[in-house]
Amino acid sequence: MKKVFTTKNLVLMAMFSALAAVLMLWEFPIPFIAPNFYEIDLSEIPILVGSFIMGPVSGVIMEAIKIILKLLIKGTSTAYVGDFANFCIGVCLVVPASIIYQKHKTKKNAFIGMLAGTLFMAVAGVVLNYFVMIPFYVKAFGMPLEAIIGAGAKIQPLVTNKLSFTIVCVAPFNIVKGIIVSLVTALIYKHISAFVKTIKL
Predict the structure, then answer these.
(1) How far is residue 110's CA from residue 21's CA, in Å, rounded to a whole number?
(2) Secretion signal: which residues (predicted)?
(3) What is the chain's pLDDT, residue by residue, as a tens digit (201 residues)?
């Protein structure tokens, strides 16, 4: 833990978290995969890069700071439930990816780690949506479950109930997010890592 909380790492965690919080403010739907009320953000990119540099513990810390900063900047529209889910989904991506990469810092391990993180995130998204997010929106905002399922069925005919909605819409949505985050991370990581090594604190 001492290695995590060095002056340099604290500065880097603050920088990556702040960038992630800003990126979290810009969200966009993927209408051909999931209903428009599911929006993707790219805030996991700086956190995944930071996790590769500093390790999985730093990744969890940065995810938490990101959410706190986002709440301070924008507040919440989901009574914090959506923010908690975003934190959990982010952790499910960056922690497995970082753990695998930290064992042997090679391109192969980086891609294996990002693949594992993406799949873990997809599974976690199914579980969170089935047991937490969808029931919450039904109760808190009066959204009929049938309307949610119907919105999914318009895009994916295989959607017939809550479980199929999470598997057919939510899982692919998170897989696409994981692929985008992973590809961008793969493109920029080497350059950012090289720059970070030049920082002396």
Answers:
(1) 24
(2) none
(3) 558 889 999 999 999 999 999 999 999 999 899 999 899 999 999 999 999 999 999 999 999 999 999 999 999 888 888 899 999 999 999 999 999 999 999 999 999 999 999 999 999 999 999 999 999 889 888 889 999 999 999 999 999 999 999 999 999 999 999 999 999 999 999 999 999 989 887
Q: Cβ distance 184 to 42 under 8 Å?
A: yes
What residue type is 157 in one-letter code? Answer: P
Which domain does 119 fall in, by range?
Answer: 7-23+39-198
Q: Which residues contact 41 (CB under 8 A, 6 or more apart)?
A: 23, 24, 25, 26, 27, 28
Report the CATH number at residue 111: 1.10.1760.20
Q: Which residues contact 84 (CB under 8 A, 6 or more apart)?
A: 67
Residue 112 phi/psi, 5-degree rounding, is: -65, -45
